[in-house]
Amino acid sequence: MPIGIKTAISLGRRPTAKDRKEMVRVVVDEMRLTELNPSKSQCLIVTKKMVKQYPQSFADVLKDGTRIGTGYGSLLTQIKTRVEHVNRGCTLSRRRKPKKTSNSPAEDIAPGPADQYGCVRWQSECPLEESEESLQEKQKEMKDLFSSEGPAGVERGHLSQLMKATYYLQRKSINGSPPPSIAELKNDWPYLFTPKELYNHFKVLTNITILEKLEKSMEEKGKMILQFFRQMPSGTNAEEVQRILMKYDDIGVSCLIPCVVLLLLSYFKEKPEALILQTDVLATAANVEKNSTLPDSPRLIVLGEILTATQWMLSIEGQVVVNPHPNFVAGFAALFASYYNFNLVYQHEASCTLEFVQRCFVGINPPTGTKTATTKVKKSGKTSEKRNNTVNPHVCTLLRRLMDFEWLSM
């Protein structure tokens, strides 16, 4: 092993990226003495033992203690990638699966992202002191309040109590089969589409206070991410990253959080409009719906430039569901909460950025499952679903680079 690895594990520190890569080469070379092309499950056995024995040096843990996924995902990815690299073009080491005969049973379809992913109260029981009829009466009371007072009624203290009491009925509606449309949910639960109740519902669903969590973690980790991108070498969309940083420097620290979001989108080569749409500073919800073709997946609509916008709206399934509100981070919290509250998958066009936010900023890190939709792939003229990794490899790589930067440079 490199001397840097020996020193790091003896002191309980993270090794440098260079030493870690050399260690991976040594480990893979040793594995291939027994098995020329180790499978992912075989790589997993080795990786888990390494991380268990030296967690301070190799575990996927941020400096604030946040564990990413299983804690060994990045090392597993590195080892398996090295195995694939050294076996590239070597036909003798390929793993071949026997062809299925015509009378073989059809292959099971890979399950989609679990709606319960990251949730602790995906479907609760009906409160003992209530019945469905009494909860429906409370629901009608809230609909009547919305008819008379509109969204402003959300500030009534009694409204929060009603929303909390009817959580069971809200989840029953959302989790229905077939699932209801957003328009139907908005008609049945109008106050669920206000920022305050979006956050409250997410809190009960996941045990996370989303707005407070995002404000704090984006402020703390955002500065570190900014420093990382300033020192990022060429490649990985570096020109666009530097352009965003220059614009941020011209405006000032007030736009830190939208700048971080744009940097992540740029790094993952995802277009800003895959997550955030820009419109005129004086636009209304009716203007946006009339003049734009809104996508089905959630979008944060900012009024003006992304870095300087002070007002935002939220759209889902082609309609604006939250009218203009101030504060970009509040809008981003509402956007993120909507994926969990309404059982929505991350759109493929922005899936890396959303998963990064989920794991690094929000702290939802289940060891299994994913919130990203499966993708269709064509092979030999046949279309099949590609199974997603627990942690997206691109997200895993950036998190590992950030962990190295955070532990070794700051």
Q: What's the topology here?
A:
Blueprint: H1 3-11, H2 17-31, H3 40-53, H4 55-58, H5 73-86, H6 132-149, H7 157-165, H8 167-174, H9 182-188, H10 195-206, H11 210-230, H12 238-251, H13 256-267, E1 276-279, H14 285-291, E2 299-303, E3 311-316, E4 319-326, H15 328-341, H16 351-362, E5 375-379, E6 382-386, H17 393-409
Parallel strand pairs: 1-2
Antiparallel strand pairs: 2-3, 3-4, 5-6
Helix pairs in contact: 2-5, 3-5, 6-7, 10-15, 11-13, 11-15, 12-13
Can you walk through the features of this model?
With 410 residues, the chain is α+β, with helices and mostly antiparallel strands. The protein folds into three domains: 3-88, no CATH class; 132-206, no CATH class; 210-409, no CATH class. It is built from 17 helices and six strands. A four-stranded mixed β-sheet has the order 1-2-3-4, sandwiched between helices. A two-stranded antiparallel sheet has the order 5-6. The radius of gyration is 24 Å and the shape is globular. The two termini are 26 Å apart. Mean pLDDT is 87; it is low at 96-113.
Please give the share of residues in helix.
40-55%
Q: What is the CA–CA distance across the termini?
A: 26 Å
Strand-pairing-aware structural class? alpha+beta
Tally of separate domains:
3
Number of strands: 6
SSE ordering: HHHHHHHHHHHHHEHEEEHHEEH
Task: Write out the strand line-up for the largest beta sheet, numbering strands in chain order.
Answer: 1-2-3-4
Low-pLDDT windows of residues? 96-113
Global mean pLDDT? 87
Rounded radius of gyration (Å): 24 Å
Q: Report on the biggest sheet.
A: 4 strands, mixed
Give the overall shape.
globular
How much β-strand is present in the residues?
5-15%
Q: Tally the helices: what do you get?
A: 17
